[in-house]
Amino acid sequence: MVVIEELSKQYGSLRVLRNINLTMETGLFGLLGPNGAGKTTLLRTLCTLEPIERGRVSICGFDLKQEGHAIRKRLGYLPQHFQVPGSLTGEEILHYMATLKGIKNKQDRNKQVARVLEEVNLTAKARQKVRKYSGGMLRRLGIAQAILGNPSLLIVDEPTAGLDPTERIRFRTLIDRLSKDRLIILSTHIISDIEAGCEQVAVLHRGSVAFNGSVADLRNIATNRVWEVTVPFTEYEKHLRTWKVTASRQEKNMAVLRVIGDKPPVSNAKPLEPGMEDGYLITVKSDTDY
Amino acid sequence: MSTMVAVVRRECGLLLRKKKIWIAYIAYVALWLWVIVPMEIEPIPLQLRGAFFFNRLNYILFFAMLFFSLIGVYGARSTRLSEFSQLMMTSPISNGELMWGRWMSQAIGVLLWTLFTIMIQFLWYQWGGVPATQLGNDVFYTGMMVGSGVLFSHALGFSLGMMGRGVWIYFLVTSGWLALFWVWSQVENHDIHAYHPMLSLFMPASLYVWVDEIYSGWGISLQLASGLLHQGMIAMLTLLVLGIAWGIFLPKRRIPWERKWNLPVIGILFIPFLCLGFLRYQGIASEWQRYQKEGEFYAHSIEKKKTSEVNWTLETMKLNVSFPRERFLVVKSSSQVVNHSRKKKGELWMTLYHSFKIQAITGKNVASWSRKGDGIHLHFKKPLAEGESTNIHFRYQGNPERIWQQTGRVKTGVVEEEGVFLRKEDGWYPLLGLRDLGDSWVDKHVPWRDFLAPTVMSEEGRTTFDVTVVDPLTPYPFTSNLSKGKGNHFKGSSQYGAMLLAGHFTHMKIMGTNIVVPPEMIPSARKIIARQQPIWQDIKKQLGTSVQPEAILFLPTGYEVDPGNERFTDQGVGVWGVQRLEQLMAEDEGTTIKGWLPVPNHSSDTQFFRAAITWGMSRQLREQHHNRLAHFIEEQGVDGIDGQKKVITYLEEADKHGRRVYQERIRSLYQAYLRQGNDDFTMRKAIQRLEQKERGGHKG
Ligand SMILES: Nc1ncnc2c1ncn2[C@@H]1O[C@H](COP(=O)(O)OP(=O)(O)OP(=O)(O)O)[C@@H](O)[C@H]1O
Ligand SMILES: [Mg+2]
């Protein structure tokens, strides 16, 4: 559905995207990467908001550079910083966006707006001014407007930031359902968001694709590289500096550490089952090590 | 389209929900109240209400243009850069719909401001009882000017705001406007002639002189046509600017039809702008050329000093005038001139406006003639001895129209379907002597700055006129300062000369004076004459001189010519501007009397004398100054009055004996004035003589 070839972008002398090559198919596509990696820039480019300097992108068979209008007809987008005029109500915003998306028929619009409000559990707050929304409510309104018009390409930039656990679960279910028949590109810092329903993952690091593959592939990177080490609590600080510790817990006066490393850090280290997060960290860290 | 409507509705709703906007509007209304209320505490004459409103509005307008162009820059920037707007850009809406929708929603706010402005004007006029027609005119004019001006500036700011991310655009726009204000303030606050008229082509709007083809004064009736043309041009430019903004706004995001149509639309919008702009340019250029040509003509007139042939009289003048079309007349004239000089005269200068084409000058005694400017030099076959007369016949035709610059742009020599206005001073028939039909100064340092004014001319003797209009052109009846006979036939003897007038006028006699006046102004005319009549009588009674004019033409603004700023020509035909009855200002009795005194304001002594005469006639003044002459004189600010103590005492002495005695003294002083002449007259000398005579009288 989306084919990105040799995509590059620069802000002045800062190279934000470097020769990106990605192919995305129907389903959920997770985009990971540390702050400043270029995720938002990549997503904005796909949304036709950023001009393409080098490389080629084709979405649903349309060339991004030439046929942006055709892509916009099929697009739903939740920006990282979703801001709307505070004096409007949630419902008004949705109606406005629906009109912009070309849903001209009033009845149609009413139905769709009611539906998306229901999906994000905002029906009760629909008539309230957006100014009075909490951060999470605003985020949910953003999700609602993105899925208006039943877009075949849904791009959501950190959709779950600020959502409470219940809402996050509701969101995941929604995404699961929607991803059956469309491509959803989701960028996030919360690995568990994509761990469940995601087939395709890419990790962006410093503007380059550091990893591209399935969730299992990402997890497999960490196979035989995750260890559990128990050390006296007094040495905890010292080991933090020398080892790559990704988690820790206290047991009596001992510290149990989850350590990433090619070799076991100590002889009595216990090998652990790798998680996606471990794969991600290895991808990102090995890169930093250069 | 429907998407754009949705954008406009939504964004406009958003705008109007902002409290700040309403605070700004309320502040604007308050600003006007702050201007108006102190003004209304002292009641103001009606016609000044308009002048006052437009004067203040002109300043406000310029700042509004600055303000709204900054708003436009802001609007464009938020359209390009705001988070929500970026979200809108990911929807299929076209660039044009998005951009124009945003622009329009702001423009509605701009128009709301205009609406507030004309509402204020409307209410203020209503409250002041300004007549409905003027109110309608003024409000329409304001709406058109202000609306198109601010809309343009907003569009310009919007278009510039599309150009870059930097805030430098705000500075650019601000400094651009301030530069324009500077030019404007140089122009409007200084002499009316201080700028090249072509500059007015570049003004987005102005309530003053800018809109007329050449320097014009205030008067909506004068400016409405050129104002409409100019603002039409500005409106077209506004559309053009928006078309260009459409091209600048995210060119890569354009959808296919926009890509195809952007340039053609800009091209199509360019055409009407170019046409209107060219018309406007032409209008200014041709008027300006004509004005300059005339100015140069009179500046270089070699006969500037010579005025009239003192030793001749024009006994009779028979004129046959036809007006075959607008701005054109054909005249056949027969005149009889008489030589009064002791010497035999073989030549004579006469004057006829230079733009006429003379077909023939004939006469039994006419040997040859030549033309030099407005002058015609005639040579006789047989020189004329004292008392001898000869007949001269002219045949000529041409356009008599002339344009002057006074307090406003004024046309004379008008021959149009709506009316005819031919004054003697236009040289529309052969005048006796070599005369200047215009006066002009050219400023060498500022090449475009020159001044062209009509001249005043007086005749030595009376002429018997016989004027027939054969091809009247206009449906209106003709009138004249001469008595009307049957049809368009005028006859009579006049010292002034002949004036021909047709239009929406009535000819009538009020208290013995011939009056030509637009019918709806008759009540005003009656009131004005009723005010002057007792003064004429008083002057006649006290000084023995009649100052009552032969005729008075009451002309609505636009026709009025005010030669030399005198109230009436000294030949006894007054040309006065007239206002509707309800707009007439109260006149100060003293000022009115002074306006009629046959003693010109020449020296401190004549100034003193004028005050003294006025005192004798005015009842009002006596009340105001508690019968204290000295008090009144002091207030007149006459130069060197301290040295005139004795004279004042003398006059006060007379005043104590009653009005009759005082008036007698004044009459004697006037006799002395007539003997001594304007240059040599002093009050002291005159009184000394008088006292001597009185003493002599007592002795004998
Ligand atoms: N408009 C801009 N001008 C200049 N540099 C920019 C601009 N936008 C982003 N950048 C830079 O580009 C790089 C990538 O930014 P981007 O927002 O795409 O990162 P991100 O992966 O979304 O980060 P985060 O997880 O924090 O959202 C950063 O270094 C950022 O500073
Ligand atoms: Mg981001």
From TrEMBL, chain A:
<dbReference type="InterPro" id="IPR017871">
    <property type="entry name" value="ABC_transporter-like_CS"/>
</dbReference>
<protein>
    <submittedName>
        <fullName>ABC-2 type transport system ATP-binding protein</fullName>
    </submittedName>
</protein>
<dbReference type="GO" id="GO:0016887">
    <property type="term" value="F:ATP hydrolysis activity"/>
</dbReference>
<dbReference type="Pfam" id="PF00005">
    <property type="entry name" value="ABC_tran"/>
</dbReference>
<keyword id="KW-0067">ATP-binding</keyword>
<feature type="domain" description="ABC transporter">
    <location>
        <begin position="2"/>
        <end position="231"/>
    </location>
</feature>
<keyword id="KW-0547">Nucleotide-binding</keyword>
<comment type="similarity">
    <text>Belongs to the ABC transporter superfamily.</text>
</comment>
<dbReference type="InterPro" id="IPR027417">
    <property type="entry name" value="P-loop_NTPase"/>
</dbReference>
<dbReference type="InterPro" id="IPR003439">
    <property type="entry name" value="ABC_transporter-like_ATP-bd"/>
</dbReference>
<dbReference type="InterPro" id="IPR003593">
    <property type="entry name" value="AAA+_ATPase"/>
</dbReference>
<dbReference type="GO" id="GO:0005524">
    <property type="term" value="F:ATP binding"/>
</dbReference>
<keyword id="KW-0813">Transport</keyword>
From TrEMBL, chain B:
<feature type="transmembrane region" description="Helical">
    <location>
        <begin position="232"/>
        <end position="249"/>
    </location>
</feature>
<feature type="transmembrane region" description="Helical">
    <location>
        <begin position="139"/>
        <end position="160"/>
    </location>
</feature>
<feature type="transmembrane region" description="Helical">
    <location>
        <begin position="21"/>
        <end position="37"/>
    </location>
</feature>
<keyword id="KW-0472">Membrane</keyword>
<feature type="transmembrane region" description="Helical">
    <location>
        <begin position="107"/>
        <end position="127"/>
    </location>
</feature>
<protein>
    <submittedName>
        <fullName>ABC-type transport system involved in multi-copper enzyme maturation, permease component</fullName>
    </submittedName>
</protein>
<feature type="transmembrane region" description="Helical">
    <location>
        <begin position="167"/>
        <end position="187"/>
    </location>
</feature>
<feature type="transmembrane region" description="Helical">
    <location>
        <begin position="261"/>
        <end position="281"/>
    </location>
</feature>
<keyword id="KW-0812">Transmembrane</keyword>
<feature type="transmembrane region" description="Helical">
    <location>
        <begin position="57"/>
        <end position="76"/>
    </location>
</feature>
<keyword id="KW-1133">Transmembrane helix</keyword>
